[in-house]
Automatic annotation (TrEMBL):
It comes from Paenibacillus agricola. Signal peptide: none annotated. Its main location: membrane. SUPFAM superfamilies: ATPase domain of HSP90 chaperone/DNA topoisomerase II/histidine kinase, HAMP domain-like. This is Sensor histidine kinase. Keywords: Cell membrane, Kinase, Membrane, Phosphoprotein, Transferase, Transmembrane, Transmembrane helix. GO terms for molecular function: kinase activity. It is a multi-pass membrane protein.
């Protein structure tokens, strides 16, 4: 019984039912999840929209405050009368004459009156301080509140010397320096600017200060549970309803801040908050608001539970209907399974005889036809194996002829050398080497020193063949000899230089190699007649566009005249097939002077081929 039960659990029918149930359950769960996520997203978007609107309102108020501070600094920097007085005093102006004290008092009064004019018209006060390099100061507040000379000792004051033009230094939130404000407003916010005259010489500094509560009073209109603050670029709190929080780091982990967008969900003290932020363009600071996330999405739970209940009822009803239908549809498949088990035991004569108008009927008919084809394929495979063995035997027999030829050439060389004709013996030896490398197909990549030996043997043969000798100059570093290169890629280039560059006349061919970190550069230059611009252009075109009809005729002529006649286009095509697009080949020529072929081979790719 257990065997039958196990077999039923492993059957296609059981798996199909499980798959059907799974495919029903998964969409249900997905729909619930998507519905939940979409609802949460909608609630989140609404909460984000509300938070952003609040941020925009607060941003408008805070930005106006900061703009007012900049307006004061701009006024001080641009007022002609005030700047004239400040520049003269900074330059060391001496008040002389019977009315000297009056004129000095008048100038000081004019500066202070202007400061009172731009800061004392309604609203909260703004404290303005002008300090000259010699310590002279002007302020719209009394010395009893604060002595401006103390600003020279502030840690930020030295950074003002790096400001030019309308650049401003936002000092941020610091403890209140003014005595009459310390009890009501423990913190202040300041901005400073440098006053420069001709030649960018500093003649003064202007510092504008407001109380921090002028900023945080805009936070009081927020909804219950919502929290807003002003942060600097290092995420330190600059302004908050709770003054005890000022100067503390923003209560969000560093990783959450890095991943944070304009609005996101973060965890603070194990509580999820919806965080929204808005940058202030004037200072680089930002306004941040925190809202408890559950406060925004608490209605989602009841909606989710109702949807889940109706989904479960629909799923149970559909499950019973689906199981009944699947059982009826899978009966022919169970029959086909029994036929397959019979074939597996080696009986190729059995047939399913399932003929229906649907896919199962097509499957049964195709299975019966497949059995017929299998019988024919077995016979065909036997015939193919017989032909393969015959071909391998023929290949082994074909290898006898080249080895016989090499042995005969070696015997002739020894006989010629015995008669004292060393030049002919050397010529036969070089020819034997070239023939052996030409016929050998056992490896496509060789070391560079093997390729150089092929080239030297080829030039030696050609020098014995023609009347005038060609000198082969080799400038190759030692570390280049063990680099892997394609077999017979240099010989066609040398042959081209001998036949077409030097025209089988006296001259020289120079081979240079350079090993770079990732490249292997080879240059072949002959002292031949070179090519004119049209011929060079045609050669370059043939080399990159493939062998044309003219190139084929040239290659055929080369085969009649020389050893291989492969030609530069064929070498280029072969190297590109071996190394891909990273291989580069350039041909340069000067009429009546020389022709130079440069091949740039990727070193790592070249060394990886064996």
């Amino acid at each position: 019984m257990w065997v039958r039960l196990l077999r039923s659990l492993r059957s296609f029918r059981f798996k199909l039912m499980i798959a059907a149930l799974t495919c029903t359950l998964i969409p249900t769960l997905i729909s619930l999840t998507i519905h939940n996520d979409l609802t949460r997203d909608a609630m989140k978007e609404q909460a984000v929209t509300n938070a952003q609107e609040t941020l925009l309102l607060v941003d408008g108020y805070v930005t106006n405050l900061l703009k007012h501070m900049l307006y004061i600094t701009n006024y001080v920097q641009n007022d002609i009368e005030m700047n004239t007085i400040l520049k003269e005093v900074a330059a060391g102006k001496q008040y002389e004459g019977p009315d000297a004290e009056y004129r000095k008092f008048y100038d000081t009064t004019r500066v202070i009156e202007k400061l009172d004019t731009i800061t004392g018209v309604g609203g909260e006060p703004a404290y303005v301080t002008i300090i000259l390099p010699d310590g002279t100061y002007y302020a719209n507040y009394s010395l009893h509140d604060y002595n401006p000379i103390h600003m020279l000792k502030e840690p930020w004051f030295g950074q003002l010397n790096n400001l030019y033009g309308y650049q401003s230094y936002w000092i941020g939130t610091t403890p209140t320096m003014f005595y009459n404000e310390q009890n009501r407003n423990p913190y202040q916010i300041s901005v400073a600017r440098t006053l420069r005259g001709e030649g960018l010489k500093i003649y003064g500094y202007v510092i504008v200060t407001i109380m921090e509560n002028q900023v945080n009073q805009s936070f009081e209109s927020l909804a219950l549970g919502q929290e807003m603050m002003l942060l600097d670029t290092s995420n330190t709190i600059l302004s908050h309803k709770d003054s005890a929080r000022i100067g503390q780091p923003f209560p969000v982990t560093a990783s959450a801040q890095e991943q944070q967008k304009s609005s996101d969900i973060v965890k603070v003290d194990n509580v999820d908050y919806l965080i929204s932020q808005h940058p202030l363009s004037l200072t680089g600071w930002k306004l941040v608001t925190l809202i408890p996330y559950e406060q925004a999405i608490f209605k989602i739970s009841s909606i989710f539970n109702r949807v889940l209940f109706f989904q479960l009822i629909a799923f149970i009803l559909f499950m019973f209907i689906l199981l009944y239908v699947l059982r009826a549809f899978t009966k022919p498949i169970m029959k086909l399974r029994k036929v397959v088990e019979t074939v597996e035991r080696g009986n190729l004569e059995v047939r399913s005889h399932i003929r229906r108008g649907d896919e199962i009927g097509y499957l049964g008919e195709a299975f019966d036809h497949m059995l017929e084809r299998v019988k024919g394929m077995i016979a065909e495979v036997n015939q193919t194996q017989t032909r393969k063995r015959n071909a391998e035997l023929a290949m082994l027999q074909a290898q006898i002829n080249p080895h016989f030829l090499f042995n005969v050439l070696n015997s002739i060389r020894m006989k010629v050398m015995g008669k004292g004709d060393k030049e002919s013996a050397e010529m036969i030896s070089s020819l034997s080497k070239l023939l052996r490398l030409t016929i050998s197909q056992d490896k496509g990549m060789i070391h560079f020193h093997e390729e150089m030996e092929i080239v030297m043997d080829y030039v030696k043969l050609m020098n014995m063949r023609q009347k005038e000798k060609v000198q082969l100059e080799v400038d190759v570093p030692k570390d280049a000899f063990m680099i892997q290169v394609p077999r017979f890629f240099l010989q066609p280039v040398i042959e081209n230089a001998l036949l077409h560059g030097l025209h089988q006349s006296a001259g020289s061919i120079r081979i240079q190699a350079q090993v770079l970190e990732e490249r292997f550069v080879i240059t072949i230059e002959d002292s031949g007649q070179g090519m004119d611009a049209d011929t060079l252009q045609a050669l370059r075109h043939n080399m990159t566009a493939g062998e044309t009809k003219d190139e084929a005729e040239t290659a055929e002529a080369g085969r009649k005249q020389g050893f291989s006649g492969i030609g530069l286009p064929n070498v280029y095509e072969r190297m590109r097939m071996t190394f891909g697009d990273t291989f580069e080949m350039a041909v340069d020529s000067k009429p009546g002077a020389c022709t130079r072929v440069t091949m740039d081979i990727p070193r790592e790719v070249g060394e990886s081929h064996v």
